[in-house]
Amino acid sequence: MRAANDGSETSNRDLGNVSGTLVLVGAGKMGSALLEGWLRLGLAPEHVAVIEPSPSPDIAALAERGLSLNPDLRTLRDPAVVVLAVKPQIAAEAIAPLRAIAGAGTLVISIMAGRTLRFLESALERPGALVRAMPNTPAAIGRGITVAVPVRASGAQRQLAEDLLSATGAVEWVDDEALMDAVTAVSGSGPAYVFLLAEVLAQAGVAAGLPAALAQKLARDTVAGSGELLHRSPLDAATLRENVTSPGGTTAAALEVLMAPNGLKNLMEKAIAAATARSRQLAG
């Protein structure tokens, strides 16, 4: 069995040798998670500039350690990396001031949902190295997964992007940007589906007669524990499911309902299709 990911999957990354300035635009939940991971992996605060109009106390405190918070952009000419972690609705507004500082050698990494490489090229008014990435919320505890697609990135820039993105979990690469809509539907939105499972499992427990507090505890710990088992085990999900299912037993009775033609598989396919279609619509 694989060891649990307590940060060990990213512990072999060392950002202490990163040279040049890294500019983080947006320090909300995802941006802050990335920043925390970078510092944990050795990136010196003095190499980081954060553009965030409403910084958290934790971000503000980092300024005392050398991090540059909301500096005059004229002091940030030709940074090594710019990471865009703002909401996609304000992307154009946030990117416009960066045109003056992003040089030909600057790597721009975007974790904005729905914003395409073509949009980034147009907004930045430059054809430099770009990486569009889609992380998910378990990044907050170092257990996220990010899918990234590069354009015009050198081998060194792609490796740098992977080192930075892997600070919050695993990283996978694709060459076809069209896949990012399905990625968003599966892993980007996926945590909500898992939380919904815990929610409705608890509700079903109450309907079966359990006290609400006990039902919630059972559902929460069962979903969390099963996820950890899936993470640690070398077996695939189908095999783990089969290992829990005794012929003619209680699990088999429940799975007959969940795996019926109109059951969970059918619903999930419809849900992923709907999310994929919506992602395409938002991308324009």
User: What's the multimeric state?
Assistant: single chain
Order of helices and strands: EHEHEEHEHEEHEHHHHHH
Shape estimate: elongated
Major sheet: arrangement of strands: 3-2-1-4-5-6-7-8
Round the mean pLDDT to the nearest integer and report it.
Answer: 93
User: Helicity range of the residues?
Assistant: 40-55%
Unreliable spans:
1-11
Distance linking N and C termini = 44 Å
User: Proportion of β residues?
Assistant: 5-15%
- The radius of gyration over CA amounts to 21 Å
Structural class by secondary-structure content = alpha/beta
Give the tally of structural domains. Answer: 2
Indicate the CATH architecture of the largest domain: 3-Layer(aba) Sandwich
Description:
This protein is α/β, with parallel strands linked by helices. The protein has two domains: 22-177, Rossmann fold, CATH 3.40.50; 190-283, Orthogonal Bundle (ProC C-terminal domain-like fold). It contains eleven helices and eight strands. The protein has an eight-stranded mixed sheet, with helices on both faces. α6 packs across α11 and α7 packs across α8. The longest helix is centred in the last third of the chain and has 21 residues, at 212-232. The protein is elongated. It starts with 21 loop residues before the first strand and ends with a helix. Residues 1-11 have low confidence and may be disordered.
